[in-house]
Amino acid sequence: MDGKEPMVDATPWEKWWSFVMLPYLQASSLRQPAGFLKDAGWSHFAPLLHDEIPEYLLPHIEPSDRPRMSVDLRKVFSDFRFSTDAEPGLELVDIVTNGLRRAMVGHLQKTGWIGMPDLMIRRRDQNLTIISMNGVEPPPKLPYADVIQHFKGVGREMLTTPRR
Questions:
Q1: Could you read off the pLDDT of 133-154 as tens digits, one per residue?
Q2: pTM
Q3: Backbone φ and ψ of 58, nearest 5°
Q4: Residue 127 has what DSSP assignment?
C-alpha cells in the first residue's frame, strides 16, 4: 500500500484503512464469492485457503450445494505493509487513478484518458463504478458521464481464448 509519510508509525488514514478493509473484504466476499476456474492450477493459492469454512462465518453464508473455497484474508494480508518507497506496480496504479480523477473533474483532455481502459481487465458490465458513501443516488446526468460511459464493456480479457 502506498504510504504517504515516511514515519515509524502509520498515519491515522493508514490505521483506518488497515482496520476497516479486512472486515469489509470478508463481508463482500461472503455476499459475492470469487469465482475459481475449475481446471486451473491453484496450488500457489492453496496456502491462503481455509481447510474448512470457519464456524463464525457459517451464519453469514447462504446455503449451497456447491463446494465453496474460503480464503483466509488474514493470510492474504499477513505481509501487507504501507511503503513510502517507489513500488513500480503501485506507481502505475497511482498514475492511472490520478489521471482518471483528473478526467472526471475536467482537468485532463480526452486524448489523455481515452486509452486507460486498455490498462484494465474487462469486467462484466463496466470497469468504473460510481458508489455513494451516503446512500444518495447520483443524478442521472453527471458532468463526467462521458468518462464513465467510455469505460463500459472495454478493457483487456483476463483469460486466454481456451479458458473462456
A1: 777 776 777 888 888 888 887 8
A2: 0.58
A3: -55, -40
A4: S
